[in-house]
Amino acid sequence: MKSIFSALTFFFLVASLGSAEPEMIPIQVRENLRIVYQVTDDAFYEDVNKGLFYARKLINTYEKHGIAADRIHLHLVYHGTGIAAVVNDQARKRLGVETANPNGELLAELIRRGVQVELCENTMQQKGVKPAELMPGVKLVVGAFPRLIDLQLQGYAYIKFE
Predict the structure, then answer these.
(1) Quick one: which of 114, 35, 124 has its CA closest to 70?
(2) pLDDT of res. 86
(3) Going by CATH, does the domain composed of 42-161 fall within 3.40.50.11290?
(4) What residues does each domain of the chain span?
């Protein structure tokens, strides 16, 4: 009898837990949000660069929860083959990418929303890309790693995209 009671208790406990809504943990830090993405590849998600896609998604999520874009300090530091995401079509062809840059509209949107899109000058020089070939609004940094270190030492949360 005791084992039947234990089994029924367990069944009802599991059934009640399964029907309850999961606890939603709210965003706790709501101002002076500091985030840096390291983007090392021109990987795509939904037809645009993955880093750019998730930057927009992050800002939209914060805004959905009442956090204005001006409270978010987001830097995207591109280097390596990620350079193809932030250069014009002519440079992409020289880099061996046959398709036109699909990121122009999203890049412009993110820059308007305050995102800093940055490219490693060392990568640019190694790949033979000229400053005039960068997409509008992209800034240069002396090196991806010194920039990432600077931002992390300033308290930026670090996320890597490959």
Answers:
(1) 114
(2) 98
(3) no
(4) 42-161
